[in-house]
Amino acid sequence: MSSRKYSYIVFMSSFVFLVMLFAGSCKSVLRDSSKDKIAGKNIDKQVEELLAKMTLSEKIGQMVQINDFDGVISDELKQRLRDGKIGSMLNEIVPEANLEIQRIAVEESRLGIPLIMARDVIHGYRTIFPIPLAQAATWDPNLAQACARIAAKEASSAGFQWTFAPMMDIARDPRWGRIAEGFGEDPYLGSCFAAAMVRGFQGDDLSSPDTIAACAKHYVGYGAAEGGRDYDTANIPESLLRNVYLPPFKAAVDAGVAAVMSAFNEINGIPATGNVHTLRDILKNEWGFDGFVVSDWKSTAEMMEHGFCEDMRDVAEKSIIAGIDMEMQSSAYGDYLEELVKEGAISEKLIDDAVRRILRIKSRLGLFEKPSIYSAKLPGKPNEEALALAKTTAMKSMVLLKNNDKLLPLSKDLKSIAIIGPLADDPYEVLGTWNRDGKPEDTITPLAAILDMIGGDTEINFITGLPYSRSKDTSEFAKAIELAKKSQIVLFFAGEESILSGEAHSRAYLNLPGAQDELIAELAKTDTPVVLVIFAGRPLTIGDIAEKIDAILYAWHPGTMTGSAVADLIFGIESPSGKLPITFPKTEGQIPIYYNHKNTGRPPEGKQLTMIDDIPLRAYQSSLGDAARYLDIGYKPLYPFGYGLSYTQFEYANLKLSSDKVKLGDNIKVSVDVTNTGDMEAEEVVQLYVRDLVASLTRPVKELKGFKRIRLKKNETKTVDFALSADSLGFHTNEGKYVVEAGKFHLWTGGSSEAELMTEFEIIE
Ligand code: NOJ
Questions:
Q1: Domains and CATH numbers, the chain
Q2: DSSP secondary structure of 296-342
Q3: What's the farthest any 2 CA atoms get from each other in the chain?
Q4: DSSP alpha helix (H) spans, 425-512
Q5: Is the whole-model pTM more than 0.70?
Q6: Which residues contact ligand 1 via a Cβ below 6 A?
Q7: What single DSSP character describes residue 283?
Q8: Per residue in 252-293, pLDDT tens?
Q9: Which atom of ligand 1 is nearest to the CA of 164?
């Protein structure tokens, strides 16, 4: 037992999470409750007055969300609207019909309560921004906030008042297709982006015509699915739940998120949708969330498949007790809640609480005053502001993984360029998983952008080589190789199609699909240098191909402005500056692999490790270096969290702390000098990590606690400061308590999680 003294401090958790957010460059703004009196009205009063007038059946109607039609409003739907049996509809896409639905609800139902119309607007509406994982790679939450703001403007103009975003599921398994929709593996980075997107969608005032309600999803543990299989089981101890999976949700709640969506998965044997502990105890009671909870699509009814509910009546009872306020698509609430109340199985107070929450958000949205303030017209082509933002975000999200001998940036005066690859000129497959309302005709492809940028003296030839990413058709290989041979450079645009990531699209093999690896390997055998640009919704296992290629730009699924962003980076108008928000494994067998892992009793670092080929035949059993690693692949990832190259170099020096001892409640000021020692102006993401050396619960080997994106001219030095509060350096115990313990910490700053510039400090009592 360590001789160190422990000091346990238990905080109100909201305070702690706030401190977390202030420690770096991402700031959280708590929702201003004075805004609850929009246009001189008192929201609570409006809600209570309405609730008092409602019949039980009308109350339950508010708790029902359906997706019912494709533009044609059936007589049955009309009747349900008139009877006040529907509170919300989702993913209906005909604007005129949406308006008509609102009109019937407002003008022909007894109480005239408007519906809240919802849509999955995840990374853009008409303007498609980079997928959320890519947005996280910018390490610039302000950009994500701005993207969400534009998405809200476009979606609200089409008649929607609510989006099912942001998704903030922490994920450590790139096999999981929905990793594309989240912010990666880190709770701190994820919290910053979750809060930023909420602020972007909701703005300062939910009642403005161009803001929409956000929805934090999927609560909770959805990204911890066993084996990376979508919908699969998650087992998450309380401390891990609170230290890793819950923080982004808490940040979203603190930023005033209007709604939360319960997840499909079970956690520790209890489905997330029927989970009293996470929904009622933590979200509603402990955090004081005052918006409403919607189930995911039939996730209530699926509790029967989970083996948690017997029938739909049981589903309704367990869901309402757990804290589901609105049921998406299945009919347990509509069919059984009334009966459950009348028979005394549940109290009407539970229903009142749910309805109050839904009405509160409708009131905050200003729907009672002006349900028709939302025009319902599909937005036209993206405007210049939206396109400029889409391009900047895409550019800052792309990560330069490799650049041997400074192959990039390319000169614009090349004699000839071969553009090859299935994704070089595909306007659809670069839009990403949640492209619902974007139009491929808006997309600028890499081929189009390069043709536009490069003058007529350069010969540019294009061949796909493979018709699409999964294709195994090698019939064009010979032509592609021929083209490569007679060109000065090959630009190969590879990747996975949009549909290979996202919901229900988990993969067991994470290599480039189809025969892409084969074709790239053939091209690499020519004397022509190859630049590889990869579009994907997740980290792919590109280790083998990376060895054969000199320059790799990882571009994710960048959206509408794909080509313009890629061209600017390839030809050096701007330097790449994205950093990985997730660890890249060498092979699927290493998964899960994440930077903030535990040290174990037998860490591999610094040990003499015998690898598989070094083991003599008939060797007797021995512990071979005693380390937590693989015989065949070691323990290091292909690329670590936070990694990303630039066309210039940055040097870190003079890491200083205002003091090497800090008391609880106090801050340490951290400063470090960063110098651009290369020959191009560029941006760098300065990262700050800590390690709590000894604790009553073992702590990760590194934890991100701050980051700042800075721009430096050639030879320029900037001193970058962070304020690190002692109170943000605690953790949740297995009992769910937040504690900060006295003792020693290591602190690093640098350009990735493998930062080496290190110092020490101590938290004292
Ligand atoms: C199921 C998905 O899990 C969720 O993210 C989405 O918002 C709903 N379907 C509605 O489309």
A1: 385-570 (3.40.50.1700), 650-764 (2.60.40.10)
A2: -TTTTGGGTTTTS-SSHHHHHHHHHHHT--BEESS-HHHHHHHHHHH
A3: 84
A4: 446-453, 477-485
A5: yes
A6: 90-91, 120, 164, 217, 296-297, 503
A7: I
A8: 999 999 999 999 999 999 999 999 999 999 999 999 999 999
A9: 7
